[in-house]
Specification:
This protein is an alpha/beta fold and 809 residues long. Among the domains are: 229-317, formyl-coa transferase, domain 3; 399-600 and 769-804, 3-Layer(aba) Sandwich (Rossmann fold); 628-727, formyl-coa transferase, domain 3. The protein is built from 34 helices and 26 strands. The protein has a seven-stranded mixed beta sheet with strand order 3-2-1-4-5-6-26, sandwiched between helices. The chain has a seven-stranded mixed beta sheet with strand order 12-18-17-16-13-14-15, sandwiched between helices. It has a three-stranded antiparallel beta sheet with strand order 7-8-9. Residues 375-390 and 640-652 have low confidence and may be disordered.
C-alpha cells in the first residue's frame, strides 16, 4: 500500500502514521522548513527540528522529503504511483505544490484521496481559518467541558492537546482503508471531503440529540443524571467513580459498610441521589479520603464498581498492564535517542508490522520513493465509473454481526454502516441495551424502547434481529449467522463471549475467515483484563484529565465519555485493516481494543513531555504552549446575550463565548489592527515570545474588546482578515448552523415511532457517492424475519415459532 502524505500538524500525519505502523509504504512531503510540529516540541534541550516530541510521535515508520518551491520535481513520480493521498492542505496550498486534485482524479480514477480540514472543502465556512481550539469549540465539545462544572464564569474548555485532530485522523485512516478496498475490487477510487468540525459535532454523546428531540441545550454546568459520578479526593491522590446501574450503587454501599447516612433512604434511587447530590458528594469524599487511590481502585473493581485513578503521565509510565500489552514501546532515534512511545491502540491475533522505525530526519540525503511491492489495488483490468452512478459504499458486500451496546461498540458499527456495510444488530427485549432505556424521548410522544434519542442516534443505518442470548437455541442461531458474516463485534465485559460459547476460537471454527473485534475497558489480555471500564473512566486513566483544567485548578472531566468514541473509531479502523488482509489472504483475526489505550493514544503531547523531560505540562485552560492570543472569551455581555435558550435554572447561564487563535505574527497584526492599531506599537506584543510572556495582559485587552460585541459579527470580520476565530457552539447553535446543513451533515429520516427527528449524520462527503445515512435506527426486532429468512432460509412459520418459544424475544 503506497500512501502519500501532503500536510502538516496532526490530522493528516496521524492518519498516515496509523497506516505506516501497519506496514504501509508512507512518504511524507514537508515544506522547506519542515512540518510545524518539528517546532512544537517538547524538546529535551534546544529546539532541534529533528527532535521535537510531537513530530517524533506522529511520524514513525515514514520516509520524508522536502518539496519547497525548488524541489517540486520530486512530486510527480509519487503522485503517479500512490494508492492513497491524505492531505490537510487547502486547494490553494496544494496548487502551490503543483498538485491539482481534480485533474489527478481524472487521470487516475482508481486513486483514493482524503482531504481533511476543519470545515470541509465546501460550504459557507469552507475558507475559514481554524486551529484545534477552533474545532473543539466550533464542534460543540468545549461547550460540554468540563463536565458538571459549578462555575458559569469559567469559559468552556478545550481538552488538552489536539483531541479533535487525533479523532479526525483515525476516522480518515478508516475511510481510506475502506475506500482502497473498493478500488481494488472495482477500480473506482474517491475524493473524500472530511470535516473535523462535523466529526466533532457527531460525537457529542447525548447533547446534540437532547437538543433535537427535547428542545434542551445541554452544557457543562449542573448535575449528572447518574450519581455518584465524579472525581474524589483520596489520602494520596484523586480517583474517579461512576455508578451506571442500580446494582453498582448497592455494591458500593456494601463496600462502604452501609454507613448510617445511607440508611436514611435519601440515596436509595437514581432520582433521590440526584436530588441529594451535594450531601452525597460530601459523605462519599469523607469516606474516600480515608483510603489510598490504589486501595479503592482494586477494592472497587473486586466488587465490580467502576473506580479509576486520575493518572499523571508519570503514573502511566508505571502501569505494568500497558507494558505487558505492548502499548509502551521503546524506539531509538538518531538525534533524540531512545524514547518510550505510545504504541498501536489495538492488538490483533494476526502478525502486524512490529519493528517501529523512528521518525525521519528533515530532508534526509536519501531520495525516498515507493518500494516495488505488488501492483496497486486499482491497477487491475477494471472499468471504473467516475460519475458514481449507482455506486454503493466502499464496504458494500461486507456483513457485520453486531453484539454491542451502549456507545463504544455502536459507534464502531455506525461508522461501518456509514461506509456501506450491512450491520445486523442482535438484541433482546428481555435485556434491552442502555441506549434504548435512557430517558431521552421526543416531547409529546409516548416513550418506548424505540423512542430514545440515544439509541436512534448511534444505531442509524443498521438492522435489528431479536435473539435472547440466554437461550441456547438463540446461541445456535447466532452461530449460523456467523457463517454468513465477515465481521463479529462485541463490547461485553472480558470473558462474557467465552461464557456464551461465542469466543473467538469457537467462531473461527465456524468461519475461518471471520474478523472478530472485542472492545472492553482494559482489553482481553493483561493483568487488569478483568477490570470493568466505562467511557468516562478513560479521561482519568489516560492522563487527559490530569492535563485538562483551568490554570491553577484541579484536573477536570472532559465533558464527554471520550473513551467510547475513541475505542469505537479505533475498532472500525482495525476492522477495515483486517478486512484488507482478509480479502487478500482469506485469513480472519481477533482484534482487541481497550478503551484505556484508545483514549491514551491521543495524549501524545503530554506523554512525550514526560518521556523526554520527565515533566508534565501544566493545566492551562484554553491557552496554548506557544500561540498567543489563544483563548475563549465571553461576548454579548452588554446586550444580555449571555443566556442560551433551553438552559434550566439548575444548569445556570452557560453564556455566549468565542475563540481567537493567532498562529503567526501576521494574524496577530490583523487582529490588532481591528481592535486598536496602537497595539501594533506595544512592545509587549511584538513577537510571539513577547505575546506569550504578556499573555494575561493581552487576554484582558481582548476580553474587554469582545465583551459588548456580537460573536458572529466579530467572527465574520476576523475571518475576512485571516484570523482563526469562531463562536463556542452549543447544541442548539449546531442545529441552527447553516454550514453543517449545507454539507448534508444532519439527517431527518422517517422513523415509525418518532417521525422525522434531526440526527448527526456522516461528517464527510464522497465525490462518487453515496452520501448520507442509508436508513433510520431500527425498532426492536424490526428485521428479524428478514435476516433469519434471507440468511438462514427459515420460513415465516419457523420464525414465528421461535418467537412463541422465547428464542426471538
Amino acid at each position: 500500500m503506497r500512501v502519500l502524505e501532503l500536510g502538516q500538524g496532526v490530522s493528516a500525519p496521524y492518519a498516515t502514521k496509523l497506516l505506516a505502523d501497519l506496514g504501509a509504504d508512507v512518504i511524507k512531503v514537508e515544506p522547506s522548513e519542515g512540518d510545524w510540529t518539528r517546532r512544537r516540541g517538547p524538546f529535551t534541550n534546544g529546539s532541534d527540528p529533528n527532535a521535537s516530541g510531537l513530530f517524533l510521535a506522529l511520524n514513525t515508520n515514514k520516509q520524508s522529503i522536502v518539496a519547497g518551491p525548488h524541489e517540486l520535481q520530486r512530486l510527480p513520480p509519487l503522485l503517479e504511483t500512490a494508492d492513497i493521498i491524505i492531505t490537510n492542505y487547502s486547494p490553494a496550498e496544494l496548487a502551490a505544490l503543483g498538485v491539482e486534485l481534480e485533474q489527478l482524479k481524472a487521470d487516475r480514477p482508481e486513486l483514493v484521496v482524503c482531504s481533511v480540514s476543519a470545515f470541509g472543502l465546501e460550504g459557507p465556512n469552507a475558507q475559514f481559518r481554524a486551529e484545534e481550539l477552533t474545532v473543539s469549540h466550533a464542534g460543540g465539545w468545549a461547550y460540554q467541558c468540563p463536565g458538571a462544572s459549578t462555575d458559569a464564569d469559567q469559559p468552556p474548555l478545550k481538552v488538552f492537546g489536539h483531541q479533535c485532530d487525533f479523532h479526525a485522523g483515525m476516522a480518515v485512516a478508516t475511510i481510506a482503508l475502506a475506500t482502497l478496498t473498493r478500488a481494488g475490487r472495482t477500480g473506482l477510487g474517491d475524493h473524500i471531503d472530511f470535516s473535523s468540525v462535523a466529526h466533532t459535532a457527531g460525537m457529542l454523546e447525548a447533547a446534540l440529540i437532547a437538543a433535537s428531540y427535547m428542545g434542551e441545550n445541554p452544557n457543562r454546568l449542573g448535575s449528572r443524571l447518574l450519581n455518584p459520578w465524579g472525581i474524589f479526593e483520596c489520602s494520596d491522590g484523586l480517583i474517579f467513580l461512576v455508578t451506571v446501574e442500580q446494582d453498582q450503587w448497592e455494591r458500593l454501599v456494601e463496600l462502604m459498610g452501609t454507613p448510617e447516612w445511607v440508611r436514611t433512604g435519601l440515596y436509595d434511587t437514581t432520582e433521590l441521589r440526584l436530588e441529594n447530590e451535594d450531601l452525597l458528594v460530601l459523605y462519599l469524599e469523607e469516606w474516600t479520603r480515608e483510603h489510598t487511590v490504589d486501595e479503592l481502585w482494586k477494592a472497587g473493581q473486586e466488587h465490580r464498581i467502576c473506580f479509576a485513578p486520575v493518572l499523571t503521565m508519570a503514573d502511566m509510565a508505571e502501569q505494568d498492564h500497558l507494558r505487558q500489552r505492548d502499548f509502551l514501546v521503546d524506539i531509538e532515534h538518531p538525534v533524540a535517542g531512545t524514547l518510550t512511545h505510545l504504541g498501536r491502540p489495538f492488538r490483533s491475533s494476526i502478525p502486524l508490522a512490529t519493528q517501529a522505525l523512528a521518525a525521519p530526519l528533515l530532508d534526509d540525503a536519501a531520495e525516498p520513493g515507493f518500494g516495488p511491492g505488488a501492483p496497486g489495488p486499482g491497477s487491475g483490468d477494471h472499468q471504473p465509473n467516475p460519475s458514481g452512478t449507482g455506486q454503493r459504499g466502499p464496504l458494500d458486500g461486507v456483513r457485520v454481526l453486531d453484539l454491542t451496546w451502549v456507545w463504544a461498540g455502536p459507534y464502531a458499527t455506525l461508522h461501518l454502516a456509514h461506509l456501506g456495510a450491512e450491520v445486523i444488530k442482535v438484541e433482546s427485549a428481555l435485556r434491552p441495551g442502555l441506549g434504548r432505556r435512557l430517558p431521552l424521548h421526543p416531547t409529546g410522544i409516548k416513550p418506548s424502547l424505540n423512542t430514545s434519542a440515544y439509541f436512534n442516534q448511534w444505531e442509524q443505518g443498521k438492522l435489528s434481529c431479536q435473539l435472547d442470548l440466554s437461550n441456547p437455541e438463540a446461541i445456535a442461531l447466532v452461530e449460523q449467522l456467523v457463517a454468513h458474516c465477515d465481521v463479529v463485534i462485541e463490547n461485553f465485559a472480558t470473558g462474557v463471549m467465552d461464557k456464551l460459547g461465542l469466543g473467538h476460537d469457537r467462531l473461527r471454527r465456524i468461519n475461518p475467515g471471520i474478523v472478530m473485534a472485542s472492545i472492553s475497558g482494559y482489553g482481553q489480555v493483561g493483568p487488569l483484563r478483568q477490570f470493568m471500564g466505562y467511557g468516562p473512566t478513560t479521561g482519568p486513566l489516560s492522563g487527559l484529565s490530569s492535563l485538562t483544567g483551568y490554570q491553577g485548578g484541579p484536573p477536570r472531566e472532559l465533558g464527554l465519555s471520550i473513551g467510547d468514541p475513541a475505542a469505537g473509531i479505533t475498532a472500525a479502523f482495525a476492522i477495515c485493516a483486517a478486512l484488507t488482509n482478509q480479502r487478500r489472504t482469506g485469513e480472519g483475526c481477533h482484534i482487541d481494543v481497550a478503551l484505556w489505550e484508545a483514549t491514551s493514544s491521543s495524549a501524545v503531547e503530554g506523554w512525550m513531555s514526560h518521556a523526554m523531560t520527565g515533566a508534565q505540562p501544566p493545566r492551562m485552560g484554553n491557552q496554548d504552549p506557544i500561540m498567543a492570543p489563544h483563548n475563549c472569551y465571553r461576548t454579548d455581555v452588554a446586550t444580555g446575550g449571555g443566556t442560551d435558550a433551553g438552559n434550566d435554572d439548575e444548569a445556570g447561564d452557560a453564556g455566549q463565548w468565542m475563540t481567537i487563535a493567532c498562529a503567526t505574527d501576521q494574524e496577530w497584526q490583523a487582529l490588532a489592527t481591528l481592535m486598536d492599531p496602537s497595539l501594533l506599537d506595544d512592545k509587549r506584543f511584538t513577537s510571539a515570545q513577547d505575546r506569550k510572556r504578556n499573555e494575561d495582559a493581552l487576554d484582558a485587552i481582548i476580553a474587554d474588546w469582545l465583551a459588548p460585541r456580537d460573536r458572529w459579527k466579530v467572527t465574520a470580520r476576523l475571518q475576512e482578515v485571516g484570523v482563526a476565530a469562531f463562536p463556542t457552539m452549543s447544541p442548539q447553535d449546531l442545529l441552527d448552523d447553516q454550514h453543517l446543513w449545507s454539507r448534508g451533515f444532519f439527517e431527518q429520516l422517517d422513523h415509525p415511532e418518532v417521525g422525522r427527528q434531526t440526527h448527526a449524520g456522516v461528517p464527510w462527503r464522497s465525490a462518487v457517492g453515496p452520501n448520507g445515512v442509508a436508513r433510520p435506527a431500527p425498532v426492536l426486532g424490526q428485521h428479524t424475519h428478514e435476516v433469519l429468512g434471507r440468511l438462514l432460509n427459515l420460513t415465516t412459520d419457523e420464525i414465528d415459532d421461535l418467537h412463541q418459544r422465547g428464542v426471538c424475544q
